[in-house]
Amino acid sequence: MRTDPRHRSDHSSTTLTRVRNMGILAHVDAGKTTVTERILYLTGATHKRGEVHDGTTVTDFDPQERDRGITIFAAAVSCLWDDHRINLIDTPGHVDFADEVERSLRVLDGAVAVFDAVAGVEPQSEAVWRQADRHAVPRIAFVNKLDRAGADLDSAVRSIRERLRTVPLVVQLPVGQEDGFTGVVDLLRMRALIWRKGHDSYEEGPVPDELRAEAERRRRLLEETVAELHSAALEEFCERSALTGPSLAAALRDLTHSGEGVVVLCGSAYRNCGIEPLLEAVVAYLPSPQDVPPVRGVHDGTEQERPADPDAPFAGLVFKVNSTATGRLTYVRVYAGTIQKGDAVLDAGSRRTERVGRILRVQADRHAEVDRAEAGDIVAVIGIKSARTGATLCAPAAPLLLEPPTTAAPVVTVAVEARSRLDTDRLATALARLAEEDPSLAVRTDPETGQTVLSGMGELHLEVAVEKIRRAHGLEMGVGRPQVSYRETVTRGVSGFVHRHVKQDGGAGQFAHIVLDVEPLDPDDDRAEGFAFSSTVTGGRVPQEFVRAVEAGCRDALAEGPLGGHPVTGLRVTLTDGATHSKDSSEMAFRTAGRFGLREALRASATALLEPVAEVTVTVPDDAVGTVLGDLAARRGRVAGQTARSGTAVVTATVPLAELFGYASRLRSRTQGRGTFTTRPAGYAPAPASVTGGMPS
């Protein structure tokens, strides 16, 4: 039997090199929360294994999470393994809550990506992998559910290589298949790890004779792959025609940190198989706070670095805010320095000074109070009253503003109202608090109808938000039919469009003369905002400061398009000529000219309405494929592919988001509850004339 590496040592004895800040990433139902539960149980953080289907998990503590059986809110937990502190965030896997993943990845040093051994890389698995790519977060992979019928490690690894475009470095070989899965062969130490039924720990033994040849072949393949990617490993491989265990482990760590490869482990979290090796891999391969580059921030217009050093000036990033019955919890990743109870900290964005009341080590919805938090810690703070998600907290004597997490623009909108007029103010307060906790929700008042409008990332996102208000505040609400956020774009522009802004009202006047070219933006132009501005004016006919004012005015005009008042995207504007007046020209005059000039130019251009579309992956029994294809066609879906997989069919299609409302219940009724589907945003596409004609202005 193995020795128990659990330690109860206090964080004060845990140096930065013994800290791992990691997240669990995956598609819905790949087993993220079960993996987290087994980690907490094996590290001694909990004394009973929680189950998702029983509603007894630590991280899915919200009533809605337990009712729906999915992770909705990112939950932070902390545990100890082999004298290492592991700060872990269990993230949602549903596309509607991708912003929770984004905020978590912003403060994490590493991650474990969990994949279903039957399904391999699923749509949201790919989406969160790309999110981690953007943040340059090193990852290891865990292929879960090897005990399921149809489980195939090689197939899952192949999908990792093909869909994620990375090099999988498989360090384990399964012992047994499907229901007969009992353990793994560790290819680094060439040993077998077997989990007996009813035992929490594995038994270590020699590689079974029937697997020895295959294990040796895979070990050789692993060495060759690592040698191709790692220069030091290549030298040793050329000299000895093999790699030693320590050399191979060191190379795997380097490749993980650089992102050139991903270490792949396997197991079954539900059966408690494979979790200890996964923890050992987290410690061995994922970076500590000292292994990642110093955090960068801005002060007085200059970029500064702050090292992960407890003795450096304090700097931390707020990545989550949560209002509870006991007060407002502000979740902070401490990048540098140390904070203690009673310390004054500066909100670098608002320039407000706050005082730290209490510091809590987080265990999902339970907390343990600590006296201090140091660089590398992830903690919750009580006493910070106004700092929002993305705010930088720092030492007042050493201000620093860190880059906040990005927030995606909402795509689905509903109108909400209190059933009783007496509850209107309570509803407004509840909505404001909800938007503060979740920046991907937006609340506004429609200027035309006077309705309160709630916008979010999807139908489920808004359902959860409304239900949270009902449960937390006891409010009965009316909710309108969801509407999507449309965009407008230019299909044929105009050249040499002249606009003159002249205003004379007794004092100093306003004069601006501009000539604009408007054209569609090249689809290959990778501009996230969908707008490009340039100037070809020569001879100083329009001074540079006025050119910048024209650009600002054009950006103002993008807020409302000529078709229905929707935001405009996908266009290029070029300022080709202009004229000024010696006394009456100003930046304000040219900004006004830019705003009204582009509005008029858009009316003279050919424009089109764009609607948000989603990539939908539907998994149904073979006998229901025809019904599903017909329903997708009726929803204006374009089928992109269809594959067969052990008695089921997987259909991929692009469908307008507006046509997906209510699709979950329709799919269940048409497949007797056996069909499932997932979606992910796929940008915008031209809306047909039938939609354009029926658009509210």
Strands, helices and their partners?
Layout: E1 19-26, H1 32-42, H2 63-68, E2 75-81, E3 84-90, H3 98-107, E4 110-116, H4 123-134, E5 139-144, H5 153-164, E6 168-170, E7 172-175, E8 183-186, E9 191-195, E10 202-205, H6 209-229, H7 231-240, H8 245-258, E11 262-266, H9 275-285, E12 295-299, E13 302-306, E14 315-324, E15 327-336, E16 338-340, E17 344-347, E18 352-355, E19 358-363, E20 366-370, E21 372-374, E22 378-382, E23 392-394, E24 401-402, E25 412-418, H10 424-437, E26 442-445, E27 452-456, H11 459-473, E28 477-479, E29 483-484, E30 487-492, E31 494-503, E32 510-520, E33 531-535, H12 544-557, E34 571-579, H13 587-604, E35 606-621, H14 625-634, E36 638-645, E37 648-656, H15 663-670, E38 676-686, H16 689-693
Parallel strand pairs: 1-3, 1-4, 4-5, 5-11, 6-11, 33-34
Antiparallel strand pairs: 2-3, 7-8, 8-9, 9-10, 12-13, 12-24, 14-15, 14-23, 15-22, 16-21, 17-18, 17-23, 19-20, 19-22, 25-27, 25-28, 25-29, 26-27, 30-35, 31-32, 32-34, 35-37, 35-38, 36-37
Helix pairs in contact: 6-7, 12-13
